[in-house]
Amino acid sequence: MKLLTKEEEDAHYSQVLKGGSIGTVLGLIGGYAGVMAASRRYHTIRNLTIPMKAFLVTSSGTFVGIIGADRSSRAFEASQNQSRQWYENREERLREEGLRGLSFSDRALAWAREERYTIVFSTWVASMIGSFAIVGRNPYLSGPQKLVQARVYAQGATLAVLIASAAFEISERRRVRKDLDAKKIAAGLPVDAEAPKGEEGGDLWKDMVAAEEQRLKKQHRSLYEKHHTDAGSDPESGSTSPQQKAGVEGVQSEQEQEQKGEEKKEKQK
Predict the structure, then answer these.
(1) How confident is the prediction along the chain (269 residues), in pLDDT tens digits per residue?
(2) C-alpha to C-alpha distance for 96 and 103, rounded to whole angstroms
(3) Using only C-alpha atoms, what is the Rg of the chain?
(4) Which of 31, 37, 82, 269 could form a disulfide with 60 if both were Cys (CB 3.0 to 4.6 A apart)?
(5) What number of other Cβ atoms are within 10 A of residue 180's Cβ?
(6) Does residue 155 lie within any of the structural domains?
């Protein structure tokens, strides 16, 4: 934990105060506009007492103000620890570099695999709105009946998306299994027997973790070499930036841990 100086504490306080003030003002404006709009449309909101309406407005201001102050605090902390931030964000940079080398279809599949739950939820919301708009045109159904019909259609669409997501996940596991077996055959290693029925994949997760670790090892090395080359630092001059020092220390520590882990595995064997 880094101890802050008096100047850093004052700068942090001013940034938090600024972010919280801006957030509070925006929240009050949004809360007041929301209460006024709801009062015109809904009879219940219109009949609320003035203290209750004031509570709704101030609550929105307090909520947005807290969020603004927290974001300002995090932004200040990130600006004061740029070298550490560079090292901690290496996984994101590695993922972005890996995506740049993929085709459009592969990038779309990777995005869909990572955001599958968001896609399922968005599909449910969109299908609920669309089905309610379609069912709402029927003049022979009451409001509750229209809502039930819309929910049934939305559940059907969501179930179809879930089935498609499960099928995609199964096909992806099989593809990973084939790739791992091909790599083992090329390396002269024994291929695991097929998993029993009802245990699809067997210890597939272990192989996937091992393959991912191997991929990250190579990417960590290539990322450091790329950054070292782009920075134009001369190894003989001995002048390195804090980002490079953090990267060197991180890579060296990871390599030492990996070597120790491999030695322990060999001793156990």
Answers:
(1) 566 678 888 888 999 999 999 999 999 999 999 999 988 888 888 888 888 889 989 999 999 999 999 999 988 887 777 666 666 677 677 777 777 777 777 777 777 777 777 888 888 888 888 888 888 888 888 878 888 888 888 888 888 888 887 887 787 777 777 777 777 777 666 666 554 444 444 555 666 666 666 666 666 655 555 555 655 544 444 445 555 555 555 555 666 666 666 666 666 65
(2) 13
(3) 28
(4) 31
(5) 18
(6) no
Which of 12, 5, 3, 10 has the alpha carbon at shortest distance from 79? 12
The residue behind tokens 């603004």 is 68
Kindly state the tokens that stand for 128. 């609920």
Is residue 39 a part of any domain in this protein? yes
Helix (H, G, I), strand (E, B) or coil at 61: helix
Question: How many domains does the chain divide into?
Answer: 1
* Of 195, 127, 198, residue with least CA distance to 161: 127
Residue 34 within a domain: yes
Q: Which domain holds residue 46?
A: 1-80
What's the sign of the alpha-carbon dihedral 76, 81, 86, 91? negative
Q: What is the dihedral of CA 155, 156, 157, 160, to 10 degrees?
A: 120
Helix (H, G, I), strand (E, B) or coil at 114: helix
